[in-house]
Here is the input.
Amino acid sequence: MIKSKLEINYDSCSMDELTDEERLLVERAREATQNSYAPYSNFHVGAALMLKNGKVIIGANQENSAFPSGLCAERTAVFSAQANYPDQPIMMLAIAAADSNGLRSKPVSPCGSCRQVILQMESRYHQQVEILLSGTRNVFRFKSIKDLLPFSFVDEDLLPEQETQG
Here is the structure.
């Protein structure tokens, strides 16, 4: 047996330590929580992404009484960007969450499905997507969604394996 260790690198920043673009995106994600439709969970998530052309697209989670039919904020933003700007890579994505007490102090991380969709965008455009997880106390900054999705399922996994010859 071989034991291995996995390490994740990220920055924990104050808003003042972010670049102007990062700060703008976090603010837009926080604002987008107000567009959330979450009557069942009262957990309002907002996402804002920046395309290579500088365009900012927002998304908010949308719940449905048939629970699996809702959609997360990150995917509403990504799918909107892809539908309207299919030739523009996503450069950066910020996420914020709020509940009945207002914006959450602790950064909230994307679910597995959202991570996989963001990873597909990195693969499609051969471009890392910087991830900003926003809380009121601090912001976690990741260079790539791969930092949040180790051992990920990627395009190459769909290809047949080459048989090894003995």
